[in-house]
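Below is a filled-in request sheet from our internal design queue. Each sheet records the structural input a requester submitted and the sequence that came back. We keep these sheets so that new team members can see what a complete request looks like end to end.

REQUESTER: design group, bay 2
PRIORITY: normal
MODE: inverse folding
CHAIN LENGTH: 313
BACKBONE (tokenized):
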């Protein structure tokens, strides 16, 4: 049997089986969303780097989130656009494994960063007098580095187990990028260990962090209700509700994908859910976390005024 097996050296990403006209419409729409995501997160990164008033723990973590969203989008969306223009173009085995690694790294890191940001808001609202002590520069660096390190190591475990599996055909991945579950379906070996690790990782990286986020925001909600000022209460509610919307979209779609029972059409369900990961979440994050923020708006106005005044001179 092994002598007759052909080792797969490249894969075909099936994407969405649609007509050429619809594919061109999707190409235009996805290109617009892609450009908007890069622009929105790029503006946030630039403002945080250029404005000293934004050099605080909250905006440090926000800059990491913006960078993750840019990198995360760049790891999947270009492949989607290429497939829409040329559906038959294959992706090499090495390229597929690399894409899987980077996608998992950025997805895991974003999960952990959302937890860190919720903890930061909890300390800021519930312990404002001790905020600068608790969220010291050293603590900020440790939390940021730990988020990246855990995300990368967990992705390395998944890809390491994936590389040990033989792929002997078919070579068609029913997805628009090399997503872990879709690639595993093509392995011609027992994948129970991979599935067990995925489930354990989902509990560690999704359920655990989601519980921590909910605990943080429940404490925040209790603190907000004790605020005497109606304006202060309204502002805090607005900020927290926006953050919870982002958390709900991100964690909800991920939990449905990796932990919920599969439907009769799991591949199509996964494709739709991953559109939230690839397009909508990275686009919504700068809008919800930053551009609705008064400090970020002020930094943007100061930068634009500075640019206009320099042009006049």
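RETURNED SEQUENCE:
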């Amino acid at each position: 049997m092994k002598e007759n097996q052909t080792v797969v050296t490249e894969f075909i990403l099936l994407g969405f089986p649609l007509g050429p006209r619809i594919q061109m419409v999707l190409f235009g729409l996805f290109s617009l969303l892609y450009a908007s995501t890069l622009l929105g997160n790029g503006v946030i990164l630039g403002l945080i780097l250029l404005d000293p008033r934004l050099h605080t723990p909250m905006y440090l973590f926000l800059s990491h989130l913006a960078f993750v969203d840019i990198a995360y989008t760049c790891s999947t969306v270009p492949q989607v656009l290429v497939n829409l223009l040329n559906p038959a173009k294959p992706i090499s085995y090495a390229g597929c494994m690399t894409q899987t690694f980077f996608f998992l790294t950025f997805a895991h890191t974003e999960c952990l960063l959302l937890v860190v940001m919720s903890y930061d808001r909890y300390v800021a609202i519930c312990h404002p007098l001790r905020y600068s002590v608790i969220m010291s520069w050293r603590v900020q660096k440790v939390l940021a580095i730990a988020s990246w390190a855990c995300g990368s190591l967990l992705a390395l475990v998944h890809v390491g187990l994936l590389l040990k599996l033989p792929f002997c055909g078919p070579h068609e991945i029913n997805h628009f990028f090399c997503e872990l579950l879709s690639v595993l379906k093509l392995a011609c070996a027992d994948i129970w260990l991979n599935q067990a690790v995925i489930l354990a990782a989902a509990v560690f990286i999704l359920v655990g962090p989601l519980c921590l986020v909910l605990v943080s925001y429940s404490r925040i909600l209790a603190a907000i209700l004790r605020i005497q000022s109606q304006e202060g209460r309204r502002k805090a509610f607005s900020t927290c509700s926006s953050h919870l919307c982002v958390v709900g979209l991100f964690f909800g779609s991920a939990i449905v994908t990796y932990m919920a029972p599969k439907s009769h059409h799991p591949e199509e369900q996964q494709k739709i859910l991953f559109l939230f990961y690839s397009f909508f979440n990275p686009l919504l994050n700068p809008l919800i976390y930053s551009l609705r923020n008064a400090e970020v708006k002020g930094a943007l106005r100061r930068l634009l005024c500075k640019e206009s005044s320099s042009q006049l001179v």
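SHEET NOTES:
- The CA atoms of residues 181 and 258 lie 8 Å apart.
- The first helix runs from residue 20 to 50.
FILED BY: M.R.
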